[in-house]
């Protein structure tokens, strides 16, 4: 799938209250596969659920895989994020209980999250020669300023 690179510099234009949520895991003991694979699979189930059921308030996500897995998620509001986290019928709550029973504090796998509420007046973003990305792709984006599109091949 081809993506269109935006040649005019863009900035994100999110509504107030949008949440940037960093969540992931770190494999501390590679050889304890039986400890960390269930957490990894639970992350996949939760992301699948969120992509299918947008009524939770989930907007978008981007995942990077390495020993430390990083998932950057975007949500409409902190209230909606917290409601999903505590929903007994959603994937998160049972996965959290399974993690605590299976892993607890044995150190084989770590999990983390950080959530930030966006105040557009105090947010700085720039996307130059990029397809829609990050906060701008999850919410809205606009030209940074009125500027003509460069001509030629950029050399």
Describe this structure in words.
By secondary structure, this protein is α+β, with helices and mostly antiparallel strands. It has helices at residues 33-52, 78-86, 92-102, 134-138, and strands at residues 10-12, 19-27, 58-64, 68-75, 109-117, 141-143.
Please give a quick description of this structure.
The two termini are 26 Å apart. Helices cover 29% and strands 25% of the residues. Helix 1 (33-52) packs antiparallel against helix 3 (92-102).
List keywords for this structure.
Monooxy_af470, two-stranded antiparallel sheet, 155 residues, 4 helices, 4-stranded antiparallel sheet, 6 strands, Transcriptional regulator, 29% helix, globular, alpha+beta
Element-level helix/strand string: EEHEEHHEHE
Largest sheet: 4 strands, antiparallel
Percent range of helical residues: 25-40%
Strand fraction equals 25-35%
Shape: globular
Number of strands: 6
Helix and strand composition category: alpha+beta
Name the average pLDDT. 91
Structure annotation, total helices:
4
The termini sit apart by 26 Å
Strand adjacency order, main sheet: 3-4-2-5
Rg calc: 18 Å
Contiguous low-pLDDT stretches (5 residues minimum) are none
Describe the SSE topology.
Elements: E1 10-12, E2 19-27, H1 33-52, E3 58-64, E4 68-75, H2 78-86, H3 92-102, E5 109-117, H4 134-138, E6 141-143
Antiparallel strand pairs: 1-6, 2-4, 2-5, 3-4
């Amino acid at each position: 799938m081809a993506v269109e690179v935006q040649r005019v510099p863009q900035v994100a234009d999110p509504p107030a209250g949008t949440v940037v949520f960093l969540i992931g895991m770190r494999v501390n003991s590679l050889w304890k596969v039986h400890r960390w694979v269930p957490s990894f699979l639970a992350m996949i189930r939760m992301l699948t659920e969120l992509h299918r059921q947008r009524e939770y308030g989930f907007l978008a996500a981007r995942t990077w895989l390495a020993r430390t897995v990083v998932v950057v998620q975007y949500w409409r509001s902190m209230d909606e994020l917290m409601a999903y986290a505590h929903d007994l019928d959603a994937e998160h709550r049972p996965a959290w209980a399974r993690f605590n029973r299976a892993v607890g504090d044995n150190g084989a796998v770590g999990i983390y999250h950080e959530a930030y509420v966006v105040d557009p007046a105090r947010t700085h973003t720039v996307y130059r020669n990029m397809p829609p990305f990050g906060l701008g792709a999850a919410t809205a984006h606009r030209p940074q300023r009125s500027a003509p599109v460069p001509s030629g091949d950029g050399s």
